[in-house]
Design goal:
192 residues, alpha+beta, 43% helix
Length: 192
Amino acid sequence: MNIRRAEPKDLTKIQQCNLHNLPENYHMKYWAYSFITWPEVSYLAEDSSGRVVGYVLSSIEPDEKYPWLQVGHVNSLSVLRTYRRLGLAKRLMMLSKKAMMESYNIEYIQLHVRKSNRAAFNLYSEKLGFKIHRKEAGYYGDGEDAYSMRIVLKPRSFTHRLGRRVQAFVYTRQRAVANWTLKCAKRVSQIK
């Protein structure tokens, strides 16, 4: 068994694994975009013949509430049934997590899991430390609900407060410039 960083040349093999295991499938454009944009955060496991038996596809995105913070997102994780219970999913997730932390200095990692997928939910919550962030009704194409789960890597302390202070500082400066512009406009109109 070989676990390594996924490369663009692996796209068709990874997609075959995805089509075999999961009801949700991304278009090839999305896979290619992910590998080009965030090449260091996706991994695969292959057997001795080079067949992809598992993968994790991850990306980096801005936080929904504080866009100056970067967060990791696990878009897809899959392991072929005959290779499950060998710890592959956990190893793939740990490699992706490490790469996201080292390359992008992320605040947390998030993912979605089907409410009915107890095996995946247990992997994420019990073995990897993810917590439910919220339930998203009708998230999947067939209408099934999803749990949005997160694992916080850095408490929102210094970076979060700094971001809010920067935002407050910029807003204060923008208001000061707007007030000054109004005063200047009034003075110009008085001179005429």
